[in-house]
Design brief:
Elements lengths: L2 E2 L3 H8 L6 E7 L10 H18 L4 H12 L5 H4 L5 E7 L2 E7 L6 E5 L5 H10 L2 E6 L3 E7 L4 E3 L7 E2 H8 L5 E2 L25 E2 L3 H23 L6 E6 L1 H10 L4 E2 L4 E2 L7 H32 L3 E3 L1 H9 L3 E6 L6 E4 L6 E3 L2 H7 L4 E2 H11 L3 E4 L12 E4 L2
Parallel strand pairs: 1-4, 6-12, 12-13, 12-14, 16-20
Antiparallel strand pairs: 2-3, 2-5, 3-4, 6-7, 7-8, 7-9, 10-11, 15-21, 16-21, 17-18, 17-19
Helix pairs in contact: 1-12, 2-3, 6-7, 7-8, 10-12
Length: 399
């Protein structure tokens, strides 16, 4: 089972699944250090716990083994545990197996129910303050997912992209030439071989600077298209790292994604990964802090106009019938409860009552998150200081 970064469609896909035995396993993990050696043991214990719980729910042993097999397969894979983030989420159901790398630690848990427990992974993403960095040079473009702690290169949706591959696709018959320059480590030159040390600007033989400029524009357009594809429905800030000439070209072609006006000036090749993350974080941090304040202001305006909902029951009921446009929730908040079959009535249950009568309860906050995602609403975890008690969920309604 491959490990994925969290994308907007990841949450929607998980929210769409409703089956009798949806297994959600969440645990902290460690990118490095001796604690990382305990992570496989921690996962094995959680899988054993899931096995016993599924048995108690009446599931046959062969079906249990089949359901848990994708997660058990990684227990002995050293390479898998050497590339962890700070948290790990595993979602298993008949026909579904997802493993997600989390940017922040999560509380260890194993739950089984008709829906996946997706609230913790949203909390992990929000706590990390995610943003993107597009590192653009004349030779290649790399896209990174950043947080307060790390910068992770994205190897998906055509990234990284090189100018050489774009020009070759545009004009496959062109015999490429290059203008010199010192090559970066491992770079390929105009003949496409590691031994060729020239850092290339690609153009057709005998066609001069006009062809070179056309190829550069074509390359920048291709980068912009791939950024637009990857950032579809993702509102996280995008920071451009490039020299002024390329930055101007890219900004003219940018079509989708929340590209910030301020970028990291100069070639990203001149910065270490840590330096690039620090400079980008300095740009992203105040923007992310302002986002929460603006969203709470929007809720206040909506509530004054009669288009707001607040509280566990009211928000759960609104989410169940598809009324929520934007859900704002405190990831620390939990409330056991039940929803009527038609979703129009929610009742709250405390932990003692749930244990006493064995009622089929669920966390109404997670249920509101799942139902909002199913109806294509936005779900936004809010960050509060630990000195404040967990806050009730709030929602901006569609009608």
């Amino acid at each position: 089972m491959d490990m994925d970064l969290i994308r907007p469609n990841t949450l929607a896909d998980l929210a769409a699944i409703e089956q009798e035995n949806c297994v959600s396993i969440l645990m902290p993990s460690h990118p490095t250090g001796k604690d990382s050696r305990q992570d496989p043991i921690r996962l094995e214990n959680l899988l054993n716990k899931a096995q016993e719980a599924l048995k108690e729910r009446g599931m046959r042993r062969p079906d249990i083994d089949s359901l848990l097999e994708p997660a058990r397969d990684v227990l002995g894979q050293l390479s898998f545990w050497q590339h962890q983030g700070y948290g790990l989420a595993i979602y298993l159901a008949p026909g579904t197996a997802r493993m997600l790398r989390l940017p922040e630690a999560v509380q260890e848990s194993m739950t089984i129910g008709p829906r996946f427990n997706v609230k913790p992974i949203l909390a992990s993403v929000a706590a990390s303050d995610p943003f993107y960095v597009l590192a653009l040079t004349e030779e290649r473009a790399k896209l990174f997912l950043g947080s307060q702690k790390e910068l992770v290169e994205i190897n998906a949706s055509g990234f990284p992209i090189t100018a050489e591959e774009v020009v070759a696709v545009r004009d496959p018959e062109v015999q490429l030439q290059s203008h010199g320059g010192a090559a970066p480590p491992g770079a390929r030159g105009d003949r496409g071989t590691p031994s060729d040390a020239g850092q290339a600007h690609y153009h057709g033989h005998g066609e001069g600077e006009s062809k070179l400029e056309a190829d550069t524009v074509h390359y920048i357009k291709a980068v912009a298209e791939r950024v637009a594809s990857y950032l579809y429905q993702d509102d996280s800030p995008l920071i451009l790292a490039a020299d002024n000439g390329l930055a101007g070209l890219y900004r003219r072609e940018h079509r989708r994604g929340r590209l910030l006006e301020t970028g990291v000036a100069g070639s990203p090749d001149s910065l270490s990964l840590q330096d690039l993350r620090q400079r980008a974080w300095g740009i992203a941090a105040p923007v992310l802090e302002g986002d929460q304040s603006q969203m709470l202001d929007r809720f206040g305006t909506a509530a004054a106009a009669g288009k707001g909902a607040e509280g566990f029951a009211e928000v759960a009921e609104a989410a169940a019938v598809g009324k929520i446009d934007v859900l704002l929730f405190d990831p620390r908040a939990q409330q056991a409860g039940q929803l009527s079959e038609d979703g129009t009535s929610a009742s709250l249950v405390d932990a003692d009552e749930e244990a006493a009568d064995g009622a089929a309860c669920e966390d109404l906050v997670n249920r509101a998150v799942v139902d909002t995602l199913r109806s294509s609403g936005r779900v936004i975890p809010l960050r509060y200081g630990t000195e404040r008690a967990p806050q009730h969920p709030k929602a901006i309604l569609r009608y």
